[in-house]
Write a structure and sequence with these properties.
Structural class: mainly alpha
Radius of gyration: 19 Å
Number of helices: 8
Shape: globular
């Protein structure tokens, strides 16, 4: 028998789920306009599969959060620039947004309009798998860490604490590890060697953010310095 608490909780989550679905649709529509508009064609199988993966897996992850951790979902759906966010991180986010947009446009020009690259089907399939692995790492991260906000800030009002279980027992920034897989997988799936050539630049920026974020966490989050001493690797086990 369903209790009254469950009924009220379900009713309260409906607007959040509706907002999540709408936001996901708008985001995919914007990406579609960017990719197919720049590419000059909709006859681009890699582009459609890319959007399907991002839209389907992103929505599934969001719906899981709505059920299991609505507070984290609210954090993930908050604005990209927030009052409590570090100033350097605001600059970083703005820079990455510009580079991200340019990166997608470059891959559309390469793979769809001018077809400079000739990426074999097996490599495109590998790219699709890497994007799935990226999303799976995001799921493992969210399952362990309710404080995985998209911006750098200390969430004192939510009882922010150090998390060292799950993927955090291996690397200190599992979401960033997943992002590296995304940087490799996306150009492969879309069919752009030029996009893959830009991936190291995006990865380097992510590494800089990881270092800057850790300075904040070591200074302001109790226990993080000890955690960083125990778990040696930031992004890639046995490498860095």
């Amino acid at each position: 028998m369903v209790g009254m608490t469950d009924i009220h909780s379900s009713a309260a989550s409906r607007p959040v789920v509706a907002r999540l679905i709408l936001r996901n649709l708008v985001w995919i529509a914007i990406l579609a306009l960017l990719l197919f508009g720049t590419g000059g064609t909709v006859r681009w199988a890699g582009g459609w599969l890319f959007l399907a993966e991002l839209g389907g897996l992103g929505l599934a992850l969001g719906l899981w959060l709505a059920r299991h951790d609505p507070a984290l979902l609210a954090e993930r759906m908050a604005m990209g620039m927030q009052p409590a966010q570090k100033t350097w991180d605001k600059v970083f986010m703005a820079t990455v947004f510009v580079l991200w947009t340019g990166w997608l446009a470059l891959m559309a020009l390469d793979a769809a309009r001018f077809r400079w690259s000739d990426v074999p089907p097996w490599a495109q399939g590998l790219g699709a798998i890497l994007i799935v692995l990226c999303m799976y790492l995001a799921y493992l991260t969210f399952r362990e860490n309710s404080f995985a906000a998209p911006v750098v800030k200390i969430q004192a009002e939510r009882g922010h604490r150090v998390v060292s279980s799950g993927p955090y027992a291996t690397v200190r920034h599992p979401m960033y590890t997943g992002a590296v897989l995304f940087f490799i997988g996306s150009p492969l799936l879309l069919g752009s060697w030029w996009g893959l050539a830009v991936a190291p630049v995006l990865t380097a920026l992510l590494a800089v953010r990881a270092v800057m974020e850790e300075r904040t966490l070591c200074d302001e989050l109790p226990g993080y310095r000890d955690y960083a001493a125990r778990v040696r690797y930031r992004l890639v086990p046995w490498i860095w």
